[in-house]
Design brief:
The complex is a heterodimer of chains A (101) and B (469).
Chain A lengths: L5 H10 L6 H18 L34 H7 L3 E2 L2 E2 L12
Chain B lengths: L2 H13 L6 E4 L1 H16 L10 E5 L24 H8 L3 E6 L33 H8 L5 E5 L6 H7 L2 E4 L20 E5 L2 H11 L29 E5 L9 H16 L3 E5 L7 H16 L20 H12 L2 H14 L4 H22 L5 E5 L15 H5 L6 H6 L3 E11 L2 E10 L5 H15 L11
Parallel strand pairs in B: 2-3, 2-4, 7-8, 7-9
Antiparallel strand pairs in B: 1-3, 4-6, 5-6, 5-10, 9-11, 10-11
Helix pairs in contact in B: 1-2, 4-5, 8-10, 8-11
The chains are: A mainly alpha (101), B alpha/beta (469).
């Protein structure tokens, strides 16, 4: 499981929307493989019939009243956005050419 | 000393700090807050933390909040975290933001994008992490109180490495609203101070239900310091067998033995407990935490806030995401995002992620079973005292293994407190040694009394040799 190829690293970087240069791919391949090799020791445990524990909270969903709560005014969101065309946030072209990283 | 004088003293000390404990100091705001506290006290308000200068870890929203990341270098939070509101309501005076490993991912503060914090006991050594700035600031006497966050030991381990007290509350005890999310099922905010009692007083203020955090638990409010001087009778302390590892630094083993001796001298029974799955905590944690982080950090896309990369004319939205993230995140954050993405990806999800969640249940069960016979567990906070800057930066796994004794608490959602018990000599430096006590969920009050029993006997004084190294 911990045999991690350079292509595996490139694939996971792409899924995570990260770009690595070739030197980084090789350096991270070694480091990630070491961590994945270490965590393989979990396979030694007898986990037959053990339910996954996603969260320690005993409570299930809490229902809040269906009413409008505090929220930030548009101007505040415009102030922290990198590029705006109020009341909107500007992004590069989404459709047509220019997609696909 | 008046409130304003107290704040000025803290600000003066911070100004002469050469540890890089603070990323941002808010002197004007602190002085204004101090003036309001004086007015409120004058008007007869009873403020439990009146005039106490407090440092805030920079992943807790209050004004400019960088998380130690280039991605958020210029980000100013439009709201304050619940814990900051509660501290201010209680009369405390936030004075600045403290350094951390980027997005709280690290155990040495070396992963901060804005240079590491140094350990006040030896400036060539790390303060621990990720709340290294907060722990160093308290240890060096810059502030009496600081907030940290603990996802896998990030309050307790730096507290141990800096010779101060760090408290990680039960999951759901303290609101996470305004804490920048790293691993949401593990994260919890807590105090760092020089004494158990000061941590208890701070917890009393910051704890409590908050509608804005969906995992906040509604419970009766408690005064955690009210009975802190009352020793716990008929005490049974469990020492997990895996915590007596030969891998521990001799100073760490000696610290643990000293604590055991103190409890025995106080009439407590100290027993070994097996906890066969607990040593697998580190493997489970380094699947669960990166998995949650990879999801939580997907929000940093360069669109709505934070860093946005410059694009070439032919580049589009996908390029914007990938370039902004690649420029904005440091190597360790990228590594954890990739690790988390890998363990959640198609074909690996069951083998890694579900296996880790099953192991998580067994680890929690080990703790639950230990608490059937023990009032608290006692173990080292970390296997090593403060290590040298750069010593572990090339080998991420070696750094991850420093968390071996802290992650089980987060996987189980339990409260724990680290306190200093002794010092040891390492290569000519005197370094503090911490131990931690772990209690059943919601057992902070009793746990802090048990910790106070040890603290009183040990009489540790936090006197870092400032100027050495």
């Amino acid at each position: 499981m911990s045999d991690l190829s350079a292509d595996d690293v490139r694939k996971v970087a792409r899924l995570a929307r990260l770009r690595l240069d070739e030197a980084e791919v090789e350096a991270e391949r070694t480091r990630l493989a070491a961590v994945l090799g270490y965590v393989e020791r979990l396979q030694q445990l007898d986990l037959e019939g053990v339910e996954p524990l996603t969260h320690v909270g005993e409570q299930t969903n809490r229902l809040d009243a269906d009413e409008v709560g505090g929220h930030l005014p548009n101007q505040v969101l415009m102030d922290i956005a990198p590029q705006t065309d109020p009341p909107f946030v500007r992004v590069p072209k989404v459709l047509g050419e220019g997609g696909g990283a | 000393m008046s409130t304003q004088e107290g704040v000025r003293v803290a600000l003066d000390r911070i100004a002469s700090d050469d540890l890089n404990a603070f990323l941002d100091v808010r002197a004007d705001e602190a002085i204004q807050t101090a003036e309001r506290v004086v007015e409120r006290v004058g008007a007869g308000e009873d403020l439990p933390l009146a005039g106490v200068p407090v440092a805030i870890k920079d992943n807790i929203c209050w004004g400019r909040t960088t998380c130690g990341s280039r991605f958020l270098e210029h980000y100013v939070s439009p709201f304050d975290a619940t814990v900051v509101e509660r501290l201010v309501a209680a009369g405390a005076i936030p004075v600045g933001k403290t350094n951390l490993d980027e997005f709280a991912m690290g155990s040495s503060c070396e992963h901060s994008a804005f240079a590491p914090t140094r350990n006040p006991w030896d400036k060539t050594r790390v303060p621990g992490g990720s709340s290294g700035g907060s722990a160093a600031a308290v240890a060096a006497g810059l502030v009496p109180l600081a907030l940290g966050s603990d996802t896998g030991g990030s309050i307790r381990q730096p507290a141990a490495l800096c010779g101060v007290v760090g408290l990680k509350p039960t999951y759901g005890r303290v609101s996470r609203w305004g804490l920048v999310a790293f691993a949401s099922s593990l994260d919890q905010i807590g105090p760092i101070a020089k004494t158990v009692t000061e941590c208890a007083r701070a917890l009393t203020v910051i704890a409590g239900f908050d509608q804005r955090d969906s995992t906040s638990v509604r419970r009766e409010s408690e005064d955690f310091s009210a009975e802190i001087e009352t020793p716990v009778q008929d005490l049974t302390i469990g020492v997990p067998e895996y915590a007596r590892s030969e891998r521990n630094h001799p100073g760490i083993s000696a610290g643990l033995e000293r604590a055991i001796k103190v409890y025995r001298s106080l009439g407590a029974e100290v027993v070994d407990v097996a906890m066969p799955h607990a040593e697998h905590g580190i493997a489970a944690y380094y699947i669960v935490a990166p998995a949650e982080a990879s999801s939580n950090l997907a929000r940093y896309d360069g669109v709505r806030f934070g860093r946005r990369a410059e694009l070439a004319p032919d580049e589009g939205l996908e390029d914007l995401y990938a370039k902004s993230r690649s420029e904005g995140f440091g190597a360790e954050v990228k590594r954890r995002i990739m690790l988390g993405t890998h363990v959640l990806s198609s074909g690996y999800h069951d083998a890694y992620y579900l296996t880790a969640l099953r192991a998580r249940r067994l680890i929690k069960r080990d703790h639950d079973e230990a608490f059937e016979t023990c009032d608290a567990l006692l173990m080292p906070t970390s296997p090593d005292p403060a290590f040298r800057l750069g010593e572990k930066t090339e080998d991420p796994l070696a750094l991850y293994l420093e968390d071996v004794y802290t992650v089980g608490v987060n996987l189980g959602g339990l409260p724990a407190v680290s306190l200093p018990v002794s010092t040891c000599e390492v290569e000519g430096s005197t370094l503090p040694i911490g131990v931690q006590l772990i209690a059943p969920a919601w057992g902070e009050s009793r746990m802090l009394r048990i910790a106070r029993m040890l603290e009183r006997e040990v009489g540790f004084e936090c006197t870092p040799a400032l100027g050495s190294g």
